């Protein structure tokens, strides 16, 4: 019976396809059949019968065989399986599928790799390593700028190999730029890694200078934006070498941050240093707060980095500078992409599976599913397609077929690894926009990364449009722009892990929506996703970003971790429910942006949105009786709700926890920014303690069963963190599960770098796609050359050392580079802003501005900027340009070696009394040194040369070569960043910022006193200090401008001759431009101090300080128990000073005035208060014997009162008066002949002294 049944089944499956023998049928032992089986092999033939022993050669033959089977017999139970045997199948055209190629429910057609075998469908042509030979053509070599590259570059004669279709580089970019886009050109791959079309600069970008002609915009008539471009000048010098290049393209931003562009150079005027573009930019060329940037590409001249290539399309030659993979392997996989249409192109096909396949290396797309239903890609790998990955219900922009039919439904991409895609990795369109019937198209359990390298802007990993499509359980990362774009209705985004997106551009998010003009597009749910490490180093990069009044979302049970800006940014939207999310270390957990809110005529809603909303609702009869009104009943209230300040957003049951990253000060008690208080809040928890994670530090963000959050927020869900992301494996079963490091390579075995300069080592990990490619760098002698974790070497001192490069995964795999450090010019870093900011931050508050012919770095009021590099000891010089107005309270800070939030600081301040000051602060903002100037030292609209020397804790400042301040911060940071802050001024401009290694060369001569008073006949030794302190250049010559007033000898002793004023100068014998000027006044006033510019010889420390009154006047403050002696000796003198008492004058308070103290002692004048309410003025001798006393019935000095005190000391005769009234008179026959004068307080909290003047006795 069983035999008869088997025979009948076999007979029923036989059919004739001339000239092929019958199709093979697999039958189980139980007599059931899984369907027909067809075999395809790289060594097959389409004249075979498709059996295992006689396989077909092509997919097309298998497809056609299935068509015949369907037409003649119908599909068998179990459908048809096409097994592809091991190998690589080159595709030169699309695999076309139509409705007649479909399977049925329960009878699918499956194209799959034979179990246990690896199958690749490739759109490339392979090249042998032997096809690459050294370049000998001198006309080619002479064009290559790098002399080293000339000796290493190879060429392959593609034309001689029969390869003649190289494609053309073409215009593409934002919006209308794609109108001119052609099929992407040929690309080169080595071992599966895309090589780099030769570019400059190799890393980073450069900027436009001036805009000479902005060119047309997208709004100009007759498509002018496609016919000509604008013109800008440049400051870099590289184009002078490009005169023979005729197909140069620029990649970058030339205006708004989102208008990325790939634009051809029409012409270069090297004399005028200008570039004219071939095509217009969408908004024209212009400069704004977001810095423009670009790099040049497709230049033979710029081949100088391993892995760079260039195709000479006229000669048919490929030029290539070998990379490590090419060099290390005997027969590396070298391929050039050829396929110009989608690898799989299915129109109205259904129930077809592609499984266990690798699709790679196409200029267009991997797969297109238009119409039909239940098309699936399962357990496959899609890589290296320039245009896009998988398009569902969207055709390739370069390969349109006539398509008539409804959008397809239930298509799926499952457990597939999709990477290195030039545009959008997966596009899911579909669903009925009239009935809101879902498309049910999905991408699930897939690993999607490294996309949008060719179409860089608005090309996400997943694009959802239409109605009711879904992405779930995916891992998505590494992209220049968004991770996900959403348009339409009722999509679901769940269980995805998304990170490291928006790495190049700003004003976008990991998930971005812009549906404000279509408010009926709503209903999308974003739930149970894990967003992390997004926007940490780039402003304007958000997590979930419903922009421009997007409405009607649910953002539920997501986890946001380390979000550098806003985790959720709702820009004016409405009916957005944000519920039960967890925010960890997010700068702004929830941001209800208000930039477009308002009801003024020129605000966004009245001006741009309300007219469109009214037209939309009118055209749809207010959606009455439509599925939209049924599903979204809030549409009925659309115009009765407050559209100008929406108040229908909810922030409910969310957890906010910032253990290491501080939340923005703009957020409220709920962790939200909500300027107008429009959001509805309920049951949120902002916590300073861990809400109950299993292991936050270890990366396990699941909640413990007894997590506190379950008690604090009743009903808070147990978010299934461990279910988020890919479950199991994404990719082919036969694919390699891991890629361990197999080798480490360096491209330069020996390098040379100047002291203080940097050089990045050129290294490679083998294979290039190793799972853990991290390298470690170790210098044998960091004192000669230091190296950081990125392989950037800094020369420290002259000599040679070795740097070992090792795999972090396998430290036994190493390579060594010899580093030679030469003396160089001592410059550690220099930025003139002529060719960019060199790492200095650029944004709306910090930008480069051209004034005249020079470019300056502009820092706006309230902004700060720090150097990109760290420094330890240095000499900083820069040019400073002040604004038109320099009013009161202007502040300029120079941050010295900032680490974290702390640093020493140099400050310049103007004050309301017309004075200004230079100050040195420590990290706690304590004033360590202050030099006050009688006027504003920095005048409006003036350029200055500023220099700052930093050695250890010593910090000195010079302005236009003149000394301003020197002090010491004993708590200085060992190293850190240096920068600027400006306040209470519109802006300040900086230029020529240079850091040099400190030297012992003399920088300045610092007098101990800048003003000296002596009486006629007196002499004084003038004291000098030299900057830096360790300079050997201490020789000076002394000069007096007016010897009739005062002379000075060769040792600096000044002799007072006659009343008047002169300038005594100490001039360096090494550098006569460096000198110190001391104003010497010969008069009856021997010394005076008002404490507005420091102590002037009076000691200053925490017990003896200079304190400012509320009105800004400074006094000398002696604390209880402190002594202050002027560092100067007197013989006979008249002392006058102002004394201010504290608010409380206790009993037994003491004030001493020391008279001519020397090592043997001094006469003392004392004032004492007593417990009986009396007070007294007392004269003591050097042995503390009371010589005379004046007893007063009450306290002579009352609380909080200012007094004028005068003391005369003529030989031994002493007299004291207060406010002009005598208080004490006596004589000390044992007085000291000369000595210091000063004060001591005891019992009082403090005493304040001011305007201390010593005069010659009349």
Automatic annotation (TrEMBL):
Keyword Transcription applies: no
Protein biosynthesis among keywords: no
Signal peptide as annotated in the record: 1-20
Pfam hit, one: Big_2
Residues covered by the BIG2 domain: 740-817, 998-1078
Lineage per the UniProt record: Bacteria, Bacillati, Bacillota, Bacilli, Bacillales
Domain of life: Bacteria
Biological source species: Paenibacillus borealis
Official protein name in the record: BIG2 domain-containing protein
UniProt keywords, alphabetically: Signal
UniProt cross-references to InterPro entries, sorted A to Z: Beta_helix (IPR039448), Big_2 (IPR003343), Invasin/intimin_cell_adhesion (IPR008964), PbH1 (IPR006626), Pectin_lyas_fold (IPR012334), Pectin_lyase_fold/virulence (IPR011050)
């Amino acid at each position: 019976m069983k035999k008869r049944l088997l025979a009948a089944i076999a007979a029923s499956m036989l059919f004739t396809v001339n000239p092929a023998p019958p199709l093979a049928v697999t039958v189980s032992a139980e007599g059931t059949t899984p369907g027909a089986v067809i075999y395809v092999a790289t060594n097959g033939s389409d004249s075979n019968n498709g059996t295992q022993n006689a396989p077909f050669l092509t997919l097309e033959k298998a497809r056609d065989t299935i068509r015949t089977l369907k037409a003649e017999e119908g599909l068998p139970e179990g459908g048809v399986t096409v097994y592809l045997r091991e190998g690589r199948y080159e595709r030169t055209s699309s695999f076309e599928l139509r409705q007649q190629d479909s399977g049925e429910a329960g009878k699918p057609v499956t194209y799959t790799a034979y179990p246990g075998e690896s199958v690749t469908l490739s759109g490339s042509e392979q090249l042998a390593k032997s096809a690459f030979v050294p370049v000998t053509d001198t006309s080619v070599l002479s064009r290559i700028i790098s002399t080293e590259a000339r000796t290493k570059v190879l060429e392959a004669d593609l034309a001689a190999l029969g390869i003649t279709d190289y494609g053309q580089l073409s215009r593409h970019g934002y919006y209308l730029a794609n109108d001119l886009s052609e099929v992407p050109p040929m690309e080169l791959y080595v071992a599966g890694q895309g090589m780099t079309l030769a570019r400059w600069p190799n890393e980073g970008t450069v900027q436009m200078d001036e805009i000479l002609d902005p060119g047309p915009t997208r709004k100009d008539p007759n498509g002018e934006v496609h016919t000509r471009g604008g013109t800008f000048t440049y400051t870099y010098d590289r184009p002078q070498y490009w005169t023979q290049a005729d197909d140069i393209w620029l990649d970058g931003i030339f205006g708004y941050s989102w208008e990325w562009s790939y634009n051809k150079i029409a012409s270069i005027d090297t004399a005028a240093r200008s570039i004219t573009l071939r095509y217009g930019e969408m908004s024209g060329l212009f400069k704004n707060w977001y810095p423009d940037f670009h790099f040049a590409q497709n230049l033979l001249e710029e081949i100088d980095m391993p892995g760079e290539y260039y195709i000479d399309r006229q000669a048919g030659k490929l030029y290539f500078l070998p990379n490590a993979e090419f060099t290390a392997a005997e027969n590396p996989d070298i391929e050039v992409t050829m396929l110009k249409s989608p690898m799989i192109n299915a129109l109205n096909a259904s129930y077809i599976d592609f499984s266990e396949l690798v699709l790679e290396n196409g200029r267009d797309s991997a797969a297109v599913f238009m119409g039909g239903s239940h098309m699936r890609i399962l357990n496959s790998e899609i890589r290296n397609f320039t245009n896009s990955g998988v398009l569902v219900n969207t055709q390739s922009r370069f390969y349109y077929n006539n398509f008539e039919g409804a959008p397809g439904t239930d298509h799926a991409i499952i457990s597939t690894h999709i990477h290195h895609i030039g545009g959008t990795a997966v596009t899911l369109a579909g669903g009925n926009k009239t009935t809101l019937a879902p498309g049910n198209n999905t991408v699930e359990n897939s690993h999607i990364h490294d996309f949008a390298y060719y179409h860089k802007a608005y090309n996400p990993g997943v694009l959802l449009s239409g109605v009711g499509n879904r992405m779930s359980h995916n891992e998505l990362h590494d992209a220049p722009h968004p991770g996900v774009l959403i348009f339409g209705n009722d999509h679901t985004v769940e269980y995805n892990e998304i990170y490291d997106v928006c790495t190049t551009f700003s004003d976008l998010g990991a998930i971005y929506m812009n549906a404000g003009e279509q408010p009926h597009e709503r209903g999308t749910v974003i739930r149970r996703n894990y967003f992390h490490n997004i926007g940490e180093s780039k402003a304007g990069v958000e997590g979930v970003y419903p922009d421009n009044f997007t409405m009607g979302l649910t953002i539920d049970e997501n986890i946001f971790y380390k979000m550098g800006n806003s985790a959720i940014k709702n820009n004016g939207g409405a009916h957005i429910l944000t519920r039960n999310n967890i925010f960890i270390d997010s700068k702004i957990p929830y941001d209800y942006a208000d930039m477009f809110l308002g009801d003024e005529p020129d605000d966004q809603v009245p001006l741009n949105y309300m007219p469109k909303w009214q037209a939309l609702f009118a055209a749809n009869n207010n959606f009455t009786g439509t599925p939209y009104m049924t599903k979204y009943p809030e549409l009925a209230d659309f115009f009765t709700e407050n559209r100008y300040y929406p108040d229908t957003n909810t922030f409910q049951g969310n957890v906010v926890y910032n253990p290491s990253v501080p939340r923005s000060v703009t957020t409220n008690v709920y962790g939200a920014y909500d300027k107008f208080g429009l959001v509805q809040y309920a049951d949120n928890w902002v916590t300073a303690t861990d809400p109950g994670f299993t292991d936050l530090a270890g990366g396990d963000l699941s909640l413990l069963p007894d997590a506190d959050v379950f008690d604090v927020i009743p009903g808070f869900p147990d978010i299934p963190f461990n279910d988020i992301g890919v479950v199991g494996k994404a990719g082919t079963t036969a694919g390699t599960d891991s890629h361990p490091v197999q080798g480490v390579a360096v491209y330069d075995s020996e390098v040379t770098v100047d002291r203080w300069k940097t050089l990045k080592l050129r290294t490679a990990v083998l294979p290039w796609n190793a799972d853990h490619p991290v390298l470690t760098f170790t210098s044998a002698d960091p004192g000669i050359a230091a190296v950081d974790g990125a392989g950037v070497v800094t020369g420290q001192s002259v000599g040679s050392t070795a740097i070992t490069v090792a795999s972090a995964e396998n430290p036994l795999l190493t390579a060594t580079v010899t580093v030679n450090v030469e003396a160089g010019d001592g410059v550690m870093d220099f930025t003139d802003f002529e060719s960019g900011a060199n790492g200095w931050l650029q944004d709306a508050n910090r930008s480069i501005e051209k004034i005249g012919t020079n470019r300056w770095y502009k820092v706006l009021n309230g902004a700060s900027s720090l150097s990109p590099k760290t420094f330890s000891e240095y000499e900083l010089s820069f040019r400073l340009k002040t604004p038109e107005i320099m009013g009161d309270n202007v502040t300029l800070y120079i941050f010295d070696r900032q680490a974290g939030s702390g640093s020493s600081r140099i400050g310049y301040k103007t004050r309301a009394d017309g004075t200004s000051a230079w100050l040195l602060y420590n990290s706690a903002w304590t004033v360590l040194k202050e030099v006050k100037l009688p006027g504003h030292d920095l005048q409006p609209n003036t350029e200055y040369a500023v220099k700052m020397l930093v050695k250890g804790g010593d910090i000195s400042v010079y302005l236009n070569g003149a000394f301003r301040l020197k002090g010491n911060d004993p708590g200085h940071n060992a190293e850190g960043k240096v920068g600027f802050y400006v306040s209470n001024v519109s802006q300040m401009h900086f230029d020529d910022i240079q850091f040099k290694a400190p030297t012992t060369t003399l920088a300045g001569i610092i007098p101990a006193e800048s003003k000296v008073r002596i009486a006629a006949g007196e002499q004084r030794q003038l004291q000098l200090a030299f900057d830096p302190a360790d300079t050997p250049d201490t020789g000076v010559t002394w000069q007096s401008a007016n010897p009739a007033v005062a002379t000075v000898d060769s040792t600096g002793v000044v002799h007072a001759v006659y009343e008047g004023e002169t300038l005594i100068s100490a001039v360096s014998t090494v550098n006569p431009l460096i000198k110190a000027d001391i104003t010497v006044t010969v008069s009856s006033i021997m010394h005076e101090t008002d404490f507005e510019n420091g102590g002037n010889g009076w000691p200053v420390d925490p017990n003896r300080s200079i304190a400012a009154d509320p009105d800004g006047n400074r006094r000398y403050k002696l604390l209880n128990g402190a002594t202050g002696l002027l560092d100067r000796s007197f013989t006979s003198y008249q002392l006058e000073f102002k004394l201010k008492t504290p608010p409380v004058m206790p009993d037994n308070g003491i004030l001493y005035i020391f008279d001519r103290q020397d090592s043997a002692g001094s006469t003392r004048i004392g004032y004492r208060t007593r417990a009986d309410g009396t007070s007294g003025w007392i004269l003591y001798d050097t042995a503390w014997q009371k010589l005379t006393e004046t007893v007063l019935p009450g306290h002579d000095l009352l609380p909080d009162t200012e007094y004028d005190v005068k003391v005369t000391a003529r030989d031994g005769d002493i007299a004291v008066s207060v406010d002009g009234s005598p208080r004490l008179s006596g004589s000390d026959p044992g007085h000291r002949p000369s000595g210091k004068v000063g004060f001591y307080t005891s019992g009082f909290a403090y005493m304040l002294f001011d305007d201390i003047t010593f005069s010659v006795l009349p």
